[in-house]
Amino acid sequence: MTSISLDQLLEPDWALQSISLPHKPQITLAAFTTLSLGAAVTASGTGNSVSLTSGNDILNASVSNVSTNDLFMQSVNGNIGLVGSHIVTSAANLRAIAAGNVYIDSSTPVILGNSSAGNTNTFSLETVDAGESITIAG
């Protein structure tokens, strides 16, 4: 399997400008503090997946889409998306774990795996288009 990993541990905040790897089925992006998506993230090919991990928030700085078959997002000490700026995905399978709130919009039918928001926080997964489905795995 081919994979790419971009780790950013030196900058206080890191804004992703763009990444599209049509022949790299696994993409891992990790940030010590805030991971801000400033453009689309696309993984294609057999067994494609994207993993986004942040020590703080995972934010959508623009209306960008995370396109992959399997998407895992983890915010160790923060939120995934914000009330007015949800993370947008077209992933078929989704898992999201955050210490804070989770705000995700899906533009395709999605299967939600083991996921959680912090204690007394909000977990919001919404479909963008009418007729799209959300299935809870397990």
Q: Percent of residues in helical segments? A: under 10%
State mean pLDDT (0 to 100 scale): 81
Structural class label: mainly beta
Placed side by side, the strands forming the largest sheet appear as 1-4-7-10-12-14-16
**C-alpha geometry:** globular
Distance between the termini: 27 Å
Q: Strand-residue fraction?
A: over 45%
* Poorly predicted regions: 1-18
Radius of gyration: 14 Å
What's the total count of β strands? 16
SSE string: EEEEEEEEEEEEEEEE
Summary of the model, kept short:
The chain is globular. It contains no helices and 16 strands.
Kindly describe this structure.
It contains no helices and 16 strands. With 138 residues, it is mainly beta. The relative contact order is 0.14.
Q: Could you list some keywords that capture this structure?
A:
single chain; 138 residues; mainly beta; seven-stranded parallel beta sheet; six-stranded parallel beta sheet; 16 strands; 0% helix; 50% strand
